[in-house]
Amino acid sequence: MNLGFLGCSKIGIKIIEALKSIPEVVLYGCSAQDSIRAKEYKEKYGFLKSYESYEEMLNDPNIELVYVSTLMSTHYKDVLMCLKHNKSVIVEKAFTMNAKEADELCYYSEKHNIYLGEAIWTRYMPSKAIINKLIKDGVIGEVYHVDANLSYSLKNVKRLTTKELGGGILLDVGVYPINFLTMFFGYDFKLINSVMVMNKEFNVDESVMINVVYKNGLTASLFASMNGVTSKKGIIYGSKGYLEIDDINNPHKVSIFDTFNKRSPELSKVIEFEKQVNGYEYEFIETIENVKNHQIEPNSMLHSETLKIMKIIDEINEKSIKVYK
After folding, report:
1. 222 class by beta-carbon count within 10 Å (0-12 exposed, 13-18 middle, 19+ buried)
2. Which tens digit of pLDDT belongs to each residue from 247-266?
3. What is the distance between the alpha carbons of residues 261 and 214, in angstroms, rounded to a whole number?
4. Once rounded to an integer, what is the mean pLDDT over residues 138-154?
5. Which among 69, 54, 53, 60 has a CA at the least distance from the CA of 16?
6. Going along the chain, which residue ranges are E strands?
7. Nearest 5°: phi and psi at 301?
8. 209, 137, 125: which is closest to 174 by C-alpha?
9. For residues 169 and 155, what is the distance between their CA atoms, to the nearest angstrom?
């Protein structure tokens, strides 16, 4: 399948590494706002062609699938441009800046029967099914609480500290704890409270803390920040034990702890997930299969789920207590 890159990004370099493990993928073309950058990207990473503009690439009939990794603030117009050129699209997270933009893109995709998927890689990984089975099999009993955090030192990253570029931690990193929770337990919860620590200088959220409760009583605490590195762990607590996922952004293993009739937890088992190229290959393996089957959305991240995530983000942005520092 002939793949075109709309945006010559750093994340794209990791994608290229993963794509080399998929024989049917052809790195056909790349485009950037700067045609010189596109040409350099082509020569460095082995694309067959580079283009003078996004439009030139999208007008090439040989391009079958477009990977969009531009700034979040331009995802809406960039993806819409791809769809209007009748190109199948997989777009980096966060899907768009808000639910309204996401809804319009999904509507266009569905109306015109053009594939559109969100590249939130953890949704496509085999680890998701393994963790889900452990929960459903009752290995840790009835789940009553979830903790998930993901933070990095990112204050030197311009796109994160520039509001006009889609800056702030919620859209860029906060989507991972939200996806970690919802891909195992769904969306039937109420936002109890959320706090955004705002950077006065840049007027963007540098930390966000989110607390929710489900109708069945399950509670969850989520955290993301650009101030430093946290454990990145996800912990799912149940009446008989808990699961500890080592990294919610790129899980390598899940540790099962037994607490049934015990004063302290005991490690009972560690499940290591299968070796991978770098984890990004799974979203493209599924995407290629979906496009070949004339689907319009990923099995692992339905349009309805993308829209629910964006609505959660909108609600957090709207209702959060904002503390300026």
Report:
1. buried
2. 999 999 999 999 999 999 99
3. 26
4. 98
5. 69
6. 2-6, 26-31, 49-50, 65-68, 88-92, 116-119, 143-151, 189-199, 204-214, 219-225, 234-238, 241-245, 253-258, 266-272, 321-324
7. -150, 80
8. 209
9. 10
Length of the chain equals 325
pTM of the model: 0.96
Question: Which are the contacts of 188, defined by CB distance < 8 A and separation ≥ 6?
Answer: 214, 215
Exposed e or buried b per residue across 283-306, where buried means at least 16 C-beta atoms within 10 angstroms of its C-beta: bbbbbbebbeeebbbbebbebebb
Backbone angles phi, psi at 66, to 5 degrees: -115, 130
Cα–Cα dist 65/3, whole Å: 5
Structure tokens at 58: 């999208």
> In the chain, helix, strand, coil percent, each to 5?
35, 30, 35
Within 13 Å of residue 14, how many CA atoms lie on the same side as its CB? 12
**Paired tokens of 132:** 């889900």
| Tens digit of each residue's pLDDT (9 = 90 or more) over 182-211 | 999 999 999 999 999 999 999 999 999 999
